[in-house]
Write a structure and sequence with these properties.
- With 165 residues, the chain is an alpha/beta fold.
- The chain has one domain: 3-Layer(aba) Sandwich (Glutaredoxin), CATH 3.40.30.10.
- It is built from five helices and eight strands, in the order αββββαβαβαββα.
- The protein has a six-stranded mixed beta sheet with strand order 1-8-7-4-5-6. Strands 2-3 form a two-stranded antiparallel sheet.
- β5, α3 and β6 form a beta-alpha-beta unit.
- α2 crosses α5.
- It is globular and about 35 Å long.
């Protein structure tokens, strides 16, 4: 029975937690969404027009997600208010997410997608999934999977530098 459960867990991780980076470019408008944040506010994507927005979908149990988190902390410090950033946890309870954020001393804003309704808008099956929206709210670039903190930091900042003034 333990082997069976282990195999199911491994299949889940392989299917939903991506370790390889894939990038896509799109000019398609995204569906608007709103999500409750750790700061007890509602983040509404359409209200963020005017500057680029970086959104990361993650889970605390996903090793590639956890590995790239420090890159977002660096990006927030480097770009300051030139961009908006939100990390959206996929499918976990607020208490689990808050404990993870506090234990790792992350300062960035976090949203909760416990029922996966926001994640499903983007029609992606794997995490981490990161989207860069341009100033008009269009998807400028998206990334599925991760290759570690430094590689992701370089990938994200390379694309952000193309649209940040």
């Amino acid at each position: 029975m333990k082997k069976f459960l282990f195999l199911i867990a491994m299949c889940f991780l392989l299917c939903f937690c991506k370790g390889e980076e894939e990038t896509q470019t799109s000019t398609t408008k995204t569906i608007d969404f709103e999500v409750k944040t750790k700061e007890k506010e509602i983040f509404v994507l359409s209200e963020k027009k005017g500057k680029p927005v970086l959104v990361n979908f993650f889970a605390t149990w996903c090793p590639p997600c956890v590995e790239e988190m420090p890159a977002f902390e660096r990006i927030i410090k480097e770009y300051g208010d030139k961009i908006d950033f939100l990390a959206i946890d996929c499918g976990e309870e607020e208490a689990v997410v808050n404990k993870f954020i506090e234990e790792n001393k992350y300062s960035f804003n976090v949203g909760y997608d416990e029922d996966m309704s926001i994640s499903n808008i983007f029609n992606r099956t794997g995490i981490p999934y990161t989207v860069i929206f341009d100033k008009e709210g269009n998807i400028f670039k998206d990334f599925v999977g991760a290759r570690g903190e430094e590689a992701q930091y370089l990938a994200y900042t390379t694309e952000l530098n193309k649209i940040v003034e």
